[in-house]
Write a structure and sequence with these properties.
By secondary structure, the protein is α/β, with parallel strands linked by helices. It contains 17 helices and six strands. Helices cover 51% and strands 11% of the residues. Strands 1, 2, 3, 4, 5 and 6 form a six-stranded mixed β-sheet that branches.
Length: 399
């Protein structure tokens, strides 16, 4: 049995949860919910708060509902009007699709993303595996069962073979807010997902010309560089797998044939040259951009270690995708509450909410050569000295 939620206003963990719930419980979110086809907005807000509390404290939904039903002060503190039963809770949430949850999370996070008004931005793209709670070792799972559940096998370096999904997230560098979230069954290669990520960003009008997008080595392909510059007119900084790739890029990147059919050839050529120049300049110094790209890895570390991304006790695609969207929403809002640097995100993932400085243990001073020789020196004893010492001891015993 886990301990109950203690409502102590001096508790830093509870204060942080209160800030997160205040950010969500606003009239703007109620408009967003009604816009996405949710009828009873008050009940949906109560259910959303219950899901966030369960992820925050790593409790089950039934435990959170039981604790809220038993104590009136908890309901008052979290501003929950009506606590539904467990059957009503699951029945109400199952009415809505995962696409509706995706639209709700994106529209809530757009409030944070609007604070940055620069047209040219830098985005970070990375993916993580999320496995279902199916015991692969205990039972044999057939292809027919996977087709019914709409699941696929996947492989990753961390989880090895698993049944689940691959979640790709694009973060804004300055706000550390997820701009788009894509979920794919199994583990498709990153080069296949590359074009879909850029299409999603263009559909939502999130990048302009000359925007920098940092990708991992898994997205490396010469065709992907061409797609980013020719079709989308951005600077795709994909970390190279091989050394001295600048000459290869300058040789392969050429004008597309569509340019010669247009009247304004000169302006398009100048833009293409500028994009090519920026790309070669950035890739020649790609090692300097490693700490910038490490921010998205810290973001995933917070989502996994503190809020349990990838440890959901669920089996279907519909239920897992909903919990992924809410988990990423919770991490993004939590980071906005003062945990917006690399060190602070690492402290949050370790459970250090108060951001206490690390304890510096005193190290023992290394002994010098002179001290070692002094310790090794032993006084030389003759036979006469030992006999004198024995006589003195014998005399003392007689007295």
């Amino acid at each position: 049995m886990k301990p109950s939620i203690n409502i102590n206003q001096k508790d830093p963990k509870l204060c942080l949860l209160n800030k997160i719930l205040k950010f969500i419980d606003t009239p703007k979110t109620i408009k967003i919910l009604s816009r996405n086809g949710i009828h009873n907005t008050t009940l949906f807000m109560d259910c959303l708060k219950i899901i966030i509390i369960s992820m925050y404290y790593n409790y089950t939904m039934s435990e959170v509902i039981r604790q809220l039903e038993s104590d009136y002060q908890r309901r008052k503190y979290f501003k929950i009007k009506e606590v539904p039963s467990i059957q009503e809770f699951y029945e109400y949430i199952s009415r809505y699709n995962s696409e509706q949850f995706n639209n709700i999370t994106n529209s809530i996070l757009s409030q944070i993303h609007k604070s940055n008004k620069r047209p040219i931005k830098t985005y970070l793209v990375d993916a993580t595996p999320v496995a279902t709670d199916i015991n692969i070792l205990k039972e044999f799972i057939t292809k027919e069962r996977l087709e019914k559940l709409k699941l696929k096998w996947g492989y990753s370096t961390t989880k090895k073979y698993y049944i689940g999904f691959k979640v790709t997230v694009t973060l804004d560098k300055e706000t550390l807010c997820p701009v788009s979230i894509l979920i794919h069954p199994g583990a498709p290669h990153d080069t296949i997902i590359y074009e879909e990520v850029l299409k999603e960003l263009k559909r939502r009008r999130l990048f302009a010309k000359r925007t920098l997008i940092l990708f991992d080595r898994g997205y490396y392909s010469l065709d992907n560089y061409k797609i980013g510059i020719n079709r989308f007119k951005i600077v795709p900084i994909i970390f190279p797998k091989y050394e001295k790739i600048e000459q290869k890029l300058s040789d392969n990147l050429a004008y597309p044939l569509e340019i010669y059919n247009k009247t304004n050839n000169k302006t398009i050529k100048q833009e293409y040259k500028q994009l090519k120049k920026i790309l070669i300049q950035k890739i020649s110094n790609w090692k300097d951009l490693k700490p910038v790209r490490g921010l998205i890895e810290d973001f995933f570390k917070v989502a996994k270690d503190t809020f349990g991304l990838g440890t959901f006790h669920k089996y279907t695609t519909k239920s897992i995708s909903k919990s992924i969207y809410i988990c990423l929403l919770l991490t993004a809002i939590c980071i906005q509450q003062g945990y917006d640097t690399k060190t602070k995100m690492q402290q949050l993932s370790e459970g250090n909410i108060e951001l206490r400085p690390a304890i510096k243990h005193r190290r023992k001073k290394k002994e010098t050569k002179d001290q070692k020789t002094e310790n090794t020196k032993v006084p030389y004893k003759n036979k006469q000295t030992t006999l004198d010492e024995l006589r003195k001891e014998h005399q003392t015993t007689l007295f």
